[in-house]
Amino acid sequence: MKKFFNKLEAKADALSQEFLGQASPSKTPVHQNQPSTIQPPTSDDIFRYRYHHGANLGSIFVLEKWLSGSMFPESAKGESELDAVKASVNEKGIDETRCIWENHWRSAVSQQDWDWFRNAAKGTSIRLPVGWWMMGGSEQASRLKGTEWAGLEGVYCNAWTIVREFVATAHNYGVGVLLDLHGLPGGANAEDHSGTSSHKASLWGNKKNLTLAKQSLHFMATEIHAGMHGVEGLQIVNESVHNAQGMYDFYSEVIEIIGRVDESIPIIISDAWDLPTAISWTQSRHPYNCIRNPIIIDTHRYYTFSDKDRASSPQQIISTIPNELHEVNPGTLCDKGEVQIIVGEWSNVLDGQTWSRASPQEKDPLVHQFGLSQSSRWLQKSSGSYFWTFKMDWMDGGEWGFVEQTKKSNILIPPFLTIPFSDIHALVSKAQAERQGACGQARGDHENYWNGTSPGEAFEHHLFGEGWEVGFEDAMAFFGARCQGRIPGGTGCGGDRIGGVEGWVKKRVLESGQRGKYAWEWEQGFRNGVGCFERAVGIL
Questions:
Q1: At what angle do helices 247-261 and 207-225 cross, to 10 degrees?
Q2: Which InterPro entries match (predicted)?
């Protein structure tokens, strides 16, 4: 990763121009209306579309030596998963290595850890990096044949079963899991955390590797569809290299593959260190003409690896945070298309050269300010964020540790996750009492504005009111889900907010059946209804 940042600074940003200027249709394309299929949000919906306050669980299923050095025999020739497992098999054999690896996987998060994550940290989500070599079920051995992982299926034969167990345990605690295909065939990037120390990004432009990747993702989608409750999304690439050959073609093909299995699974793509281009690409996919899966852009935010960061003081870096993610400025789905992001990795780490520009006594207050600035911004501009990372050999992890940074109050816990159930009941009652008046006011404002702007046009203002009612009802359903027992593992506090608003808007607009010239009125009403409820209960 460190090498990558320095290389990126020297690159010309040619790809970012590929999609810029390709705006989505400026007017809603007119189609025939369809019957509404809207139903109340399910538990799975809430797991997937609420705001994700999360952490990564790195170096469990995809080892990284700097986090889990205890899993690396002295004979290991590199710092990747493959280096560790080959060294262990050479020393101890397949069976003993399998026992060691399975113990690492199963013991990664104890009951005490889960209790702390849910109750103290108020965590809602885990981003779980996994590797392609774990996939395939009965076809696992044949898929590994001819690759650097050949002969190691005996170590990983139970890995996916243990992932399924992990997801089920998390669900019982009310915690969702984002399945992140961190390690892809050949590597989506040249770093050790792709599973090997080849130092090549050999996924791109390699037909065999791309086929293996698609097979792995099809396997994962099929497994999720079969009933892995609590999976909040499937990430198809982690940290792709910038300007990778055929990356967006690969995204399109995989989205089709997953969509044919299950159009409800949120699909997460890497921004490849180029968020504007990724946004332009997602906006170019009009919701009426594409697979329905919500598409979410994963962007990572670190401030410790580049020469620019090292040359800056802590105060200078902190001052840039309020402008981060400024590219994320969604309009209406009908007009601009879909834009939704997560901050899939971030930390409170700054380089030693950066800290040399501050006095030692300033460090703790500055780390506190840095962490709160970041987490506040992610809450404002994204549908969720995942701190890197939850567990390591050297707990509590310093500025890399979710545990230590939470204990030091250096990460903002979204306030709505701490509201007592008794207050949630009272707030919902208050919002309900104000509902009719708020709807009337919003609809009146909408009608007066558009009738004044375009007098004589035959609007369909009733659509605004219909959308408003659905939006208000949905926001209320998310907020009250825990105290109503719809999310497992209730602890007496916590409301949820629709975090993936753009994806949820897309889902509801499509389900509404509105395809006519004024479908945008339904969408505007929906968004307004969500906002009115959230303002009424004080979480907007």
A1: 30
A2: GH, Glyco_hydro_5, Glycosyl_hydrolase_5
